[in-house]
Amino acid sequence: MKLVIKNGRVIDPANGVDGVQDLYIEDGKIAALGSAPAGFVAEHSVDATGLVVAPGLVDLAVRLREPGYEYKATLESEMQAAMQGGVTSLVCPPDTDPVLDEPGLVEMLKHRARRLNQAHVHPLGALTMGLKGQSITEMAELTGSGCIGFSQAEVPVEDTTVLLRALQYAKTFDYTVWLRPQDAHIGRGGVAHSGPLASRLGLSGVPVMAETIALHTIFELMRATGARVHLCRISSAAGLELVRAAKAEGLPVSCDVGAHHVHLTDADIGFFDSNARVTPPFRSQRDRDAIRAAVLDGTVDAICSDHTPVDDDEKLLPFGEASPGATGLELLLSLALKWADDYAAAQPGMQEGGALALAISRISADAARVSGLDRLGAGQLGVGSVADVCIFDPAVRWTVDGSALASQGKHTPFLGYELAGQVQATLVAGRVAYQRNAR
């Protein structure tokens, strides 16, 4: 199909584009920006007047809950949520049931996703068999089946010798290891940030040192092996300082933060609101402010949704007993835009639209770069790249209502919040996969 998106403000951070112009699509790829290619006759037209035309969003942490946890969510429901959130490429951790430690399981998941013909699904393979931290997986075979990296999800590797061997293996084949820095013992069983509020509420705590001790270990192993590591969901100011120093040292490291951690603190637990039970826990205001600053200066490479659908039976429980997690696919764009709005309001002299373009970059081009998906054309609108496009209205304000979310997971700490920015259409490989209202 030949398609033109007309009169939209095209923001493509990967190629330095920001301006009102038409976007031309042919055979599932970007054919031209600005002027139509010779002989181009559009079969379909999308009017984007007053809207932003951006690359399809790239989300680095989406639990699709298949296989094994279909009672929490299904591939169909979460892929529809991705379309409504403008997410066209997503990375899913290996903590399914069974764990993604066998090529056949990865191939089955990718086959199911392809049949739905919506977002591109990129699995992470398990770093160790069964995520038990005892023996490393056959990374080469898992890569051949479609894995883009290797992860332990939320399960720390207790034996650092096993982690050392895994990083050596990964370095040999130039694989990226995705790790969430969390000490296996300190803070085990904790449900909230260690601090005055957790003490006052009588909640078991997870201290910041659980993150920083793990980071020190990871960086020492990186120095020894030269392996590339992506750090998932950094949550503290002290952790970010260590990441900043590691980058300055030249270590091949990148990191992301959860979109909810950009805005919320441990105070948002309120009166034991289990919707605010997440992993890692919300930390202090100082930590939250450090995260916001790190998104700006590039210490944080990407913002992800950390999408973790949880059903009512596991969420509507006392705070300490509730399962951690929050739905986020449909909120990623709006939460990134809220960061941009807050930053722009605090910097009245900044170039108009600069914060908006940076926010879009953190959830598209930058996320594609650190995950290696830029090699597949994700996160950009350059001529010849795959035509994955997110068209949204930055001015529309909407209220987060669980019943209106496409995701089967209805729980988020942002229920009742009014947010700006609403996806109007999502294109996947040049096909209109979702359209809110015909214009």
Could you walk me through the main structural features you see in this protein, from its secondary elements to its overall organization?
It is built from twelve helices and 19 strands. The protein has helices spanning 75-84, 103-116, 139-144, 160-173, 196-201, 209-225, 237-249, 285-297, 312-315, 332-346, 354-362, 365-371, and strands at residues 2-12, 17-26, 29-33, 44-47, 52-55, 57-59, 87-92, 120-123, 125-126, 150-151, 176-179, 192-193, 205-206, 228-231, 253-258, 302-304, 389-399, 418-428, 431-435. The strands form four sheets. Strands 1, 2, 3, 4, 5, 17, 18 and 19 form an eight-stranded mixed sheet that branches. Strands 9-10-11-14-15-16 form a six-stranded parallel sheet, with helices on both faces. Strands 6-7-8 form a three-stranded parallel sheet, sandwiched between helices. Helix 4 packs across helix 6, helix 6 (209-225) packs parallel to helix 7 (237-249) and helix 10 packs antiparallel against helix 11. The longest helix has 17 residues, at 209-225. The model has no long low-confidence stretch (mean pLDDT 96).
